[in-house]
C-alpha cells in the first residue's frame, strides 16, 4: 500500500469563522494537529470574532453538495463531521451526500455561538432531528442543543442520561451530551445504545472556550479516521479538547480560541512512558 493510500483523511462540513476559533478553521486545525488530512465543504460564511457574529451568508445547498462530491470523488474520507448547517435545505443536501457516500458521520448539532448569535434557522431543527440524526454514528449536543432536540429541561447527570437515550431514539448510534455549560465540573455523558459512561475532566477557569464544541467533534472524527473505535475516539477527543482549552493563547476581547499546536504528540508519548 502506498504512503498516499494509508494517510487518514477527514471531511468537515461546516461554516467559516473569520476569527478561526470555531467552524471550518477549528476543524482543519484539529485534523492537522492529530495528523489527519483535512478536507472541507463550507456551508456558510460568517463575519465573527471573539465577541460575536456580525454577519452570516448561507451558501446554496447545491454548492455544498458540489464541494462534498468534488473532494470525495477524488480523495475520499475515512470519517466526516458536520458543524454549522444554517438551513433545512443545506441539511437535506448534506444528508443526501452522507447517504450516497456512506460516510461515517459525527454530527455537532450547532445552533448558536457562545455569544448567543443564532447559527441555525429555527425551522431547520426539525430537519436536523428527522433527516440528519438517523445518519449519525456520533452526535455531540451541548446542554441547550440537547434541550432543543428533546424538548426537556436538562441540568443533572440523570437528566443528561435521559436526554442521551431520547436522542439515541432519534436514530443516532452514539450520543455524547456535553457538560461544558454545567455550573460545576464539565462532565460529558456518553451513551452507546446499551450503557452509559461519563467523560470527566477538571473545569479550566477561562473565558477562552470559543469553538470547544467544534474542536471536540473534529477530534472525534479525526480519531475515527485513524481507526479508533467510537468509545476510544470519544475519550481521546475529550483529552484533546481539555488540553486545547488549557493552552488557549488568550486572544481577543471576548471568548477567545483554544490552541491546537502545543505538541499533542509529545504529550501523548509522555503519558504512555
Ligand atoms: N472550562 C472548561 N474546562 C474544561 N472543559 C471544558 C470547559 N468548557 C467546555 N469544556 C468541554 O469542552 C467540550 C465542548 O463542550 P461545550 O463547551 O459544552 O460545547 P459547545 O462549544 O458546543 O457549547 C466538552 O467536552 C466540555 O466538557
Ligand atoms: C462558523 C461557526 N460554526 C460553529 C460555531 C460554534 O461553535 P462551538 O464549537 O459550538 O463554539 P462556541 O461558539 O459555542 O464557542 C461558531 N461560533 N461559528
From TrEMBL:
What are the residue boundaries of the Pyridoxamine kinase/Phosphomethylpyrimidine kinase domain, all occurrences included? 17-258
* Gene Ontology biological process: thiamine biosynthetic process
Chain segments carrying region Disordered:
251-273
What are the alphabetically sorted keywords of the record? Answer: ATP-binding, Kinase, Nucleotide-binding, Thiamine biosynthesis, Transferase
Which reaction(s) does its UniProt entry say it catalyses? 4-amino-5-hydroxymethyl-2-methylpyrimidine + ATP = 4-amino-2-methyl-5-(phosphooxymethyl)pyrimidine + ADP + H(+); 4-amino-2-methyl-5-(phosphooxymethyl)pyrimidine + ATP = 4-amino-2-methyl-5-(diphosphooxymethyl)pyrimidine + ADP
**What's a Gene Ontology MF term here?**
hydroxymethylpyrimidine kinase activity
Per the UniProt record, one Pfam family is Phos_pyr_kin
Q: Which GO terms describe its cellular component?
A: cytosol
Pathway(s) it belongs to: Cofactor biosynthesis; thiamine diphosphate biosynthesis; 4-amino-2-methyl-5-diphosphomethylpyrimidine from 5-amino-1-(5-phospho-D-ribosyl)imidazole: step 3/3
NCBIfam families in alphabetical order: HMP-P_kinase
The name of this protein is Hydroxymethylpyrimidine/phosphomethylpyrimidine kinase
Q: Which organism is it from?
A: Thermogemmatispora aurantia
Amino acid at each position: 500500500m502506498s504512503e498516499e493510500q494509508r494517510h487518514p483523511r477527514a471531511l468537515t462540513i461546516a461554516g467559516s469563522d473569520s476569527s478561526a476559533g470555531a467552524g471550518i478553521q477549528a476543524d482543519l486545525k484539529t485534523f492537522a494537529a492529530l495528523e489527519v488530512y483535512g478536507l472541507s465543504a463550507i456551508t456558510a460564511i460568517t463575519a465573527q470574532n471573539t465577541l460575536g457574529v456580525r454577519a452570516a451568508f448561507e451558501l446554496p445547498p447545491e454548492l455544498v453538495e458540489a464541494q462534498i462530491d468534488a473532494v470525495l470523488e477524488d480523495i475520499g474520507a475515512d470519517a466526516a463531521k458536520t458543524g454549522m448547517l444554517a438551513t433545512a435545505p443545506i441539511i437535506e443536501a448534506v444528508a443526501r451526500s452522507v447517504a450516497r457516500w456512506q460516510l461515517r458521520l459525527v454530527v455537532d448539532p450547532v445552533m448558536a455561538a457562545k455569544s448567543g448569535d443564532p447559527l441555525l434557522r429555527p425551522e431547520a431543527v426539525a430537519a436536523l432531528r428527522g433527516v440528519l440524526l438517523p445518519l449519525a454514528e456520533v452526535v455531540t449536543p451541548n446542554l441547550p442543543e440537547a434541550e432543543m432536540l428533546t424538548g426537556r429541561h436538562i441540568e443533572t447527570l440523570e437528566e443528561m442520561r435521559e436526554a442521551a437515550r431520547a436522542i439515541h431514539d432519534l436514530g443516532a448510534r452514539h450520543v455524547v451530551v456535553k457538560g461544558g455549560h454545567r455550573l460545576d465540573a464539565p462532565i460529558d455523558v456518553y451513551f452507546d445504545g446499551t450503557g452509559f459512561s461519563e467523560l470527566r475532566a477538571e473545569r479550566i477557569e477561562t473565558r477562552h472556550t470559543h469553538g470547544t464544541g467544534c474542536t471536540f467533534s473534529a477530534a472525534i472524527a479525526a480519531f475515527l479516521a485513524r481507526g479508533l473505535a467510537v468509545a476510544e475516539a470519544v475519550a481521546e477527543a475529550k483529552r484533546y479538547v481539555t488540553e486545547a482549552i488549557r493552552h488557549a493563547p488568550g486572544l481577543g476581547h471576548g471568548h477567545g480560541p483554544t490552541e491546537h499546536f502545543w505538541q499533542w504528540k509529545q504529550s501523548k508519548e509522555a503519558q504512555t512512558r
